[in-house]
């Protein structure tokens, strides 16, 4: 067996480069791409780098406690795994490897509706504790209802309703490459239905199958068919956050879908403080998009997020080293956050607040 040196990688970028070398071009491009000119893709990371952290000194940081809890889920640190479709393209073990890595590191994952491992298979692997289930609402409501009820019955703890995908954003590399699900792989939640194949590419799939007429009324319908908490994923406008809260959602995920939908949308970290203000403590707010460093997690929490999610870094870990690759990705971010908290002068999650972010206007009158 060839020597795998990913255990020596010191940051997430190294995983990305290694995954690019290892994966077929079509798969890597699908995972990596943003839409159109990928302005938002760059901005998701760049905006983080423009925010400055202000360290406090002479605080006993010999013990840093990163534990937290989101909607009843205990986390060893405030990071969860975002739903990403078709993980068996990255590694033959796919979603179950990701779940195991998350579980061993004391965190949790959300299974995509469009997974290459079924709702039931993952739950069996997870001993009935599979995490959250991400829902795409199909035009055929019987299919949608079936997904939700299977997830509820078999032990998923919340439904993550994705609200930013009435159509798929245009990722140009996927057109060039003629992206399709590789032979031998299926969207396992639909076993033998025609729905399980992505023969004509993803854009056609979404346009044909996914309900682009979805509105807030459908959120009420969803609530009527399940007792599980409902989390809306893909909120970017503070106005929509307000509407979501009035519809009684249990949490909001501030997300621009990893910059794969509307290009030139703002970065998620830029809108986060405004959404937190609009929500005003009425439900937890989670952020995803561009989180690649422990300092990014610290900044998101300082802006009021309860936790963050990562998408692509997990796919890079999975591609490079399966379960152990994902574990290494998670532990890098875990250790980076711990060090960053200590260097900033905070020893627990509850001590993180916006005073950690450098804002000269707060000090001009001192
Ligand atoms: C390859 C890929 C597939 C994705 N599939 C889904 C999906 O099936 N459902 C969903 O709600 N979001 C999906 N997303 C969006 C992620 O859940 C998440 O919002 C995004 O990846 C976060 O940004 P990051 O990759 O910069 O961490 C996908 C993202 C990527 C990169
Ligand atoms: C199959 C797609 C709808 C999955 C997705 O959300 C994405 O590619 O961004």
Summarize the structure.
The chain is α/β, with parallel strands linked by helices and 366 residues long. The protein has helices spanning 12-22, 25-32, 39-50, 95-104, 119-125, 141-153, 172-177, 202-209, 216-225, 238-246, 268-279, 294-302, 312-344, and strands at 68-70, 73-75, 79-81, 110-111, 132-135, 159-162, 230-235, 251-254, 285-288, 307-310.
Describe the fold and architecture.
- The protein has about 375 residues and is α/β, with parallel strands linked by helices.
- It has one domain (about 15-345): Aldolase class I (TIM Barrel).
- The protein is about 40% helix and about 10% strand.
- The strands form two sheets. It has an eight-stranded parallel beta sheet with strand order 3-10-9-8-7-6-5-4.
- Helix 10 (about 240-245) links the parallel strand 7 and strand 8.
- Helix 4 (about 95-105) runs parallel beside helix 13 and helix 12 packs across helix 13.
- The longest helix has about 35 residues, at about 310-345.
- It is globular, with a radius of gyration of 20 Å.
- The mean pLDDT is about 95.
Total of DSSP H or I helical runs spanning 4+ residues: 13
Under CATH at level 1, the class stands as: Alpha Beta
Bound molecules: flavin mononucleotide, 2-OXO-4-methylpentanoic acid
Instruction: Evaluate the radius of gyration.
Output: 20 Å
Question: Looking at the structure, what is the overall shape?
Answer: globular
Q: What is the CATH topology?
A: TIM Barrel
Helix-strand string? HHHEEEHEHEHEHHHEHEHEHEH
- Number of beta strands: 10
Helix content: 40-55%
Strand content: 5-15%
CATH architecture: Alpha-Beta Barrel
- Output the CATH homologous superfamily: Aldolase class I
Distance between the termini: 63 Å
Multimeric state of these chains? single chain
Strand order of the largest sheet: 3-10-9-8-7-6-5-4
